[in-house]
Amino acid sequence: MKISSARFLRAAEGKQDYPPSQLTEIAFAGRSNVGKSSAINTLLGRRNLVKTSKTPGRTRMLNFFSVNDQFIFVDLPGYGFARVPLEVKRKWKPMVETYLKERNQLAGVVLITDARRPPTESDMDLIRFLQSFRIPLVVAATKADKLTRSRLAARKKLIQQEAGPDAKVILFSSVDGRGKNELWKEVKKLIEGKG
Fold this sequence. Notes:
Elements (H helix, E strand, L loop, with lengths): L5 E7 L11 E7 L5 H9 L17 E6 L3 E5 L10 H17 L3 E9 L6 H12 L4 E6 L6 H15 L4 E4 L8 H15 L1
Parallel strand pairs: 2-4, 2-5, 5-6, 6-7
Antiparallel strand pairs: 1-3, 3-4
């Protein structure tokens, strides 16, 4: 995918803040500190469009990014980080669930997981939620550069079992770029399926 433009549109906490655009949207979800921002930046060929932080839990709203003025990436708040204040955590769940259930422009979700670890209980909660609402899912197991080929194969098999047969699982790395083209292929399928 050739990226000619990628720009931040707006941050949203509720439906009233969503961009008024009718463009198709792809949401990115994942545990705090799993490399979600880095994965989006890698896909877009940008270094700092989506802000990365050494402090997990920094993304506290839905962040909308226009890509080529043709579709939108939505960076969802990370989940599962203990040091985020309780009142912030309480807001996240309804904010994210409302978006996932009610946003007509949503074509699917890319779940970013850590290839070095099995899916967490929070990952599984999100997978089950998406399945219950029949929201298409692609799993990008990031940090794949940190594992040997045999460990990667075993991990991919485990993630596939957990995510179910309908989910596409891709081994991905923001460091060496592996899986980038494959992930773009799946994102394009989601966008075309929505059109």
